[in-house]
Design a protein that fits this description.
The protein is built from 3 helices and 4 strands, in the order βαββααβ. It has helices spanning 14-30, 61-69, 71-80; strands spanning 3-11, 34-38, 52-58, 84-92. Helix 1 (14-30) runs antiparallel to helix 3 (71-80). The longest helix is centred in the N-terminal third of the chain and has 17 residues, at 14-30. The radius of gyration is 13 Å and the shape is globular.
Amino acid sequence: MTALWIAHVHVTDDEAYGKYAALATEAIAEHGGVFLARGGRYVQLEGNDRPRNVVARFPSLEAAETCYNSDSYQHALSFARGASERDLMILEEI
């Protein structure tokens, strides 16, 4: 079953977060991830508003989790820490 990587982000340091985004794009692709939404227009109907929303599809929940724990993604993530407030989850599709 495929899985969705869903992130809701408030960027506090554009330069550092830009480094994260470039490196994370490569790490996600290495693990079979494909972006479905990345930024763009949205309507917040309920809950906390985070102005950057990202959805990527992975071949499986395990592939998405392996990506998150990979050295390449963790290196990318080091640029996002302190440069953003983030919520991230992986959700298996039905």
